[in-house]
Amino acid sequence: MVKEIPAKEDNFSEWYTAVVLKAELADYAPVRGCMVIRPYGYALWENMQARLDARLKATGHTNAYFPTLIPESFLKKEAEHVKGFSPQVAWVTKGGDSDLTEPLALRPTSEAIINYMYARWVKSYRDLPVLINQWCNIFRWERTTRLFLRTLEFLWQEGHTLHRTAEEAQEETLRILNIYVDFVENDLAVPVIAGLKPESEKFAGAVATYSIEALMRDGQALQAGTSHNLGQNFTKAFDIRYLDEDNTEKHPWGTSWGVSSRLIGAVIMTHGDDQGLFLPPKVAPLQVVIVPILYGKEDEAVLAQCQRAKELLHNFRVKLDDRPQFTAGWKFNEYEMRGVPLRIEIGPRDVKKNCAVLVPRDDSDKQTVALDNLPTEVEGLLERIQKGMLERARNWVSSVTTYATTFEEFKSNLVQKPGYVRVHWCGGQECENKIIDETKTTPRNMPLDEQNTKGSCIVCGKETGILIYYARTY
User: Fold this and answer.
1) CATH for the stretch 288-381
2) Per-residue pLDDT averaged across 262-273, rounded?
3) pTM over 0.90
4) At the top level of CATH, which class does the domain 401-471 belong to?
5) Which of 13, 322, 376, 406 makes a 20 to 30 Å CA pair with 136?
6) Are 292 and 306 in contact (CB under 8 A)?
7) Does position 132 have pLDDT exceeding 70, yes or no?
8) pLDDT, average across residues 269-298
9) Comparing C-alpha atoms, which of 302, 268, 309 is closest to residue 288?
10) Structural domain boundaries of the chain?
11) pLDDT exceeds 70 at position 82
């Protein structure tokens, strides 16, 4: 039970957990490292899921579902893949009272079982491309867990595609990366950096990994999504072959990509404040709450006008809270804590004027509007709130992003202003290891729109065109 939310600046970690629990987004499950996503949190996830799913379907992807249990032999088919995931795999070794002849993994990701099925389905160039996505749960045996950010079981979508050429696979990898950028920035109002991961951060079994990185308000980075070009690593491992137009058998080229429910954590940490949540209008479970101001004498007329307002706003996710056991002030605090973007107040004076008072969650000025104009005014105000959230978040990220030309400056920047540090890097593993070992930061990615800028590696001094972002991470 959380009685109050601590100040965000005093203890960011405690603030985050208190917000999740008090806003009833999630709760701790009886299994270590697992969580229960409560209805309010799941409604947020459903809204996020629907908006991303629509983008994927608009680009030709379709949804399917594959088993949770994966035979051990499947994971072992791609050596680099199994090596990368083995420390996090949870195993099923008994069925009822009998030992299994082959252990079954709870999926840490689904490349293995999906490519096994693709080997059965793909026989001709006419079967390509394969553009399949699934929404499912994933299991990874994490040592340290935190609600939404890192749990033993979590929700995500994972896309798995096959293509005739390497060029088509690369185009798909970047297409998905751009879809993620559009979704996370424009729907969640979370600014991200899109770029290529260095070899040390590459997905196990991939030729290249691209990511979107978000910076949380404590100055730590959060990997918000990944898109992998798998080359032919999995199609060869699972012997996927198709007969091409020239009548020769070939291995297709693969990709995989995903974002997860940790995006809920990103939304909380990017926009929340000392009052609690602040949810972007596009994905908020409630976009508008109507609170009647009741004094006893004209309550019937006030409630009638509130009901009329609710009817006018039927195209929005709106709630009329007319519970008599709670005061208007209590409701104001409750819905601020739950992050509802817009509150509407209607009292006796508003009834006489046939108007309503709009109170944005972003602390901007209240507005009094005519009841008949309510749908238009609410739509415009929600759009302004959504854009303002992204703008404020971008400005903050910019204010804590620095550029270092020397290793000493790099270390100094981390102490003085926790956030992103941009540096030039020669691409060598030794230089990367030195940075990681001495600063406890990790390379996030090499932004696609910031490459080929000349500079010197901050470790060895070699001239290079590689610009990379570093930060401490979750």
Assistant:
1) 3.40.50.800
2) 98
3) yes
4) alpha beta
5) 13
6) yes
7) yes
8) 96
9) 309
10) 12-271, 288-381, 401-471
11) no
